[in-house]
Amino acid sequence: MEQHLSHNKVYLLLGAGLAAFILLIKVILPLLAPHDPNAVNVADALQGPGGEYLFGTDRLGRCVLSRILFGAATSVTTTLLIVFVTVVTGACLGLLAGYFGGIANSVIMRIADVFLAFPNLILAIAVAGILGHGLFNTGLAIASTAWTKYARLVRGLTLKEKTKNYILAAELSGAGAVKSITKYLLPNILSQIIVVAAADIGGVLLSVAGLSFLGLGAQPPTSEWGYMLYEGKSLLQQAPWLTIFPGVSILLTVCLFNFVSDFIRNVLDPMDQTAKGSLYSEKGI
User: Fold this and answer.
1) From CA 108, how far away is CA 94, in angstroms rounded?
2) How many other CB atoms are found less than 10 A from the CB of residue 163?
3) In the Cβ-directed half-sphere of 157, how many Cα atoms lie within 13 Å?
4) What is the 8-class DSSP label of residue 47?
5) How far apart are the C-alpha atoms of 60 and 46, rounded to whole Å?
6) 55-68 mean pLDDT
7) Where are its TM segments located (predicted)?
8) Which CATH code, of 2.40.50.140, 3.90.1150.10, 1.10.3720.10, 3.40.50.300, is assigned to 64-272?
9) What is the pLDDT of residues 134-178, one digit of tens each?
10) Burial of 46 (0-12, 13-18, 19+ CB in 10 A)
């Protein structure tokens, strides 16, 4: 019970931190933008960094700093939504395959094997090309190729957990499949799912930026870091700041998410190890 409460406190803190982070990028950062990110001013086109335009301007005279700040909301929010949809989809399918087995397990795992036969990014590019341009289609393309990892992970964890005494006791006490999964099984594997999901955020952000860089993601006049790289690549020698600042923004954000994922792993994993150690001690192992 104490272990369960400790995990709940961590989940509460993680949720509060995520809410604060989303508030920062969706509300506070845009307020710091010195100009309208979509305001066209051809007279100020391709001005270098400094003066009124701290990060310079693009070929249409739009403030690069303002587009970077607004682009943070677009890029990061899109990334987090994709990760959320991917985790929920993969986890639900993994729970279904692992808990019930049989035909459900065979069908879901065979479909996952087909998706795993291709590199995720290549498959995402193909799916995005079929669906068409736009961030929504980009999100669908990435999520439709990334769910397999979570399906296989959760299936393995479910197969391991469902044979333990607490699940058997719940079933014998009359708990149905839904209650056994949601009340007993899922809370015991949630921390491992969160650790993997946190580690994937940086990679998903790179995938979103990569598809936008290829022209398959965000479309004008949307401020999005990958699309800003796409717009600036033809002017790399004449106006390098058009690619430097979005590129550095992506780099720093990916590093930030990687540091956060390491922190989450260090917080949640020791709890799991402590719980396992206590269990083994009680059994005299």
Assistant:
1) 8
2) 9
3) 23
4) P
5) 8
6) 94
7) 12-33, 80-102, 114-136, 193-218, 238-260
8) 1.10.3720.10
9) 999 999 999 999 999 999 999 999 999 888 888 888 878 877 888
10) middle
User: Could you tell me if 170 and 179 are in contact, meaning their C-beta atoms sit under 8 angstroms apart?
Assistant: yes
Give helix 2-23 / helix 241-283 axis angle, nearest 10°.
Answer: 170
Q: Report CA-CA distances (Å) from 276 to 158, 188, 190, 273, 282.
A: 17, 12, 15, 5, 10
pLDDT at 3 over 70: no
- The torsion angles phi and psi of 127, rounded to 5 degrees, stand at -65, -40
pLDDT at 258 over 90: yes
Sign of CA dihedral 227, 30, 250, 144: negative
| Tokens of residue 135, six digits | 């961030």
Q: What is the 3-state secondary structure (H, E, C) of 236-271?
A: CCCCCHHHHHHHHHHHHHHHHHHHHHHHHHHHHHHH
Residue 110 banded pLDDT, cuts 50, 70, 90 = very high
Place of tokens 């083994």: 280
* Cα 268 to Cα 10, 78, 148, 154, 192, distances in angstroms: 8, 26, 23, 17, 8
At 281 the pLDDT is 39
Query: 56 is written with which tokens?
Result: 């310079």
What's the mean pLDDT in 35-49? 91
Specify whether the CB–CB gap between 67 and 223 falls below 8 A: yes
CA dist., res. 220 & res. 240, Å (int): 20
- Cα 151 to Cα 67, 87, 111, 112, 178, distances in angstroms: 37, 8, 11, 8, 18
Cβ atoms 245, 68 nearer than 8 A: yes
Report d(CA 283, CA 258) in Å as an integer: 37
Read off the pTM. 0.87
